[in-house]
Amino acid sequence: MIRARILTGEAAEGSVLSLDEPLSFWGAFEPRTGVIIDVHHPQRGACVKGMILLMTETRGSGSAPGAIAEAIRLGTAPDAIILAEPDINLAVGAEVAAVLYGRHCLIACVTLDELARLRSAGRLRIAADGAVTAG
Amino acid sequence: MLELSDHSRAMLAGDAGKAMQLAMRLVVKAATIMEAERLIPISFAHLDACFYTGQAHVDFVRFLIENGATLAVETWTNNGVVSLADPTLRPEREDPETVQGATELMRLYEKLGTRPTWTCAPYQHAGGPKFGDHIAVGESNAVSYYNSVVGARTNKYGDYLDVACALTGLAPDAGLHRTEERGATLHIDATGLPEEWRREDVFAHLIGHHTGRLAGRRVPVISGLFPDAPKHALKAISSAAASSGGVELWHGTGVTPEAPELASVFRGTQTHVVTVDDLARAHRDLSTARDGPLDAVALGTPHFALSEFADLVRLLDGRKVRSGLPFLVSTSRVVRELARAKGWIAELEACGIEVPVDVCTYHSPRVRGLQGRVMTNAAKWAYYAPGMLGVEVAFGSLRECVESAIRGEVWRDPALWSAR
Question: Does the structure's ipTM exceed the value 0.90?
């Protein structure tokens, strides 16, 4: 079983959206709609709202915390984001949104191998202790 | 395992109110993720969270103020999306939601007790951090400059975490705060290039851009810079390398304070020898436009230094910019007042040049509304403008920008190697 390191948030479950490339939440993503707008991104046009979002990492931007917080405020954010490395910007943005709006987006990380295994799942459930199960 | 002082623990428990509790939670969260063993005191912060990106930013600072937040350290502000000094620069009717939100956000940060510097180049103001100081900075070029040129120590703190560090007066003891993380693993050797090339003002932008491309997020050390290089050249390297690669610290042998010589900082084995072709490629990289009729000139990314104003006035020599051609020089209030005291602002305005303050030229309506071919001498502006503004960029030296603005079309300096 895969046990994710939860950076912030509580349990989550939902459909998987697996991204082939890292995403920059600031600039490449539209918080008003939850849609990936970066023309260079292979999943351009996909909507992250309510999904369990899988990607290796985010593209760095100091504005990412504001963008994820804004998406959580507007209800367009994923329910969870699972990465292959810890991400301070997303954790901070989600933490702020939880305090301001009482809404959560779980941010967690696993190893690169574990992430690859999770990508084939249609749905994922992440428990409060980090246990990740399919379905 | 992170160890906390009793004071920090009490703040985390909410003893100092909900705002300070949130701030401490964010700092502890970051420290835990970075696997820091302790928090260390900082003496200064420069905030990026005052740059409006949506309602959540306004809600955050309002929550802090309503719940009794107080800043622990001297805290300065990055530029805003609008200018408080000159509201006509971006009239409300253009985009009411953004202009109202951005204005409110800046007012709230003033209320929080920051020093409203509204500049992306705070290191050009007196009274900032010194060598060895631990600080918390968000703006990428300022992170790079403070770490590299001043020798202060900061990681790149994203939005909210920058504010949290300023409120608690603490930062995680990790990353570039630690001496062992500040060594260079890549050597960029420019000593083989002719001296007269390395003295040109475009060289700093080109070597910065090239260094960022090669280094990515690593710490590079550059040799071949001159100890008497003007500070604005070091600003150009800092900002260009931060844009093209995400460089947060670079060293220059004999130039930056931690690198009196190569051996002081170089901990790697990889040396890249810079060639003429490398610089020519950097120049092509930064120019998306062919030479031709010019639509505007944009200077001052990061904010123009007083020494750059001196150069601009000298090169312009009282001649007028071609009628109708926007020529913007972005800077801070403080630097504009210093330039005004020398008579330069009046002189530039008489020649048809505008000097906006508090903002970045990407967000000035004159530039936002522009199309076509825009000239700049700033690598950072050249790097971002095609994507952010949809304009074409002709990159050139300061002299080329001035002569082109007078002629109304891109002019290349025959004396300049990079024009060949």
Answer: yes
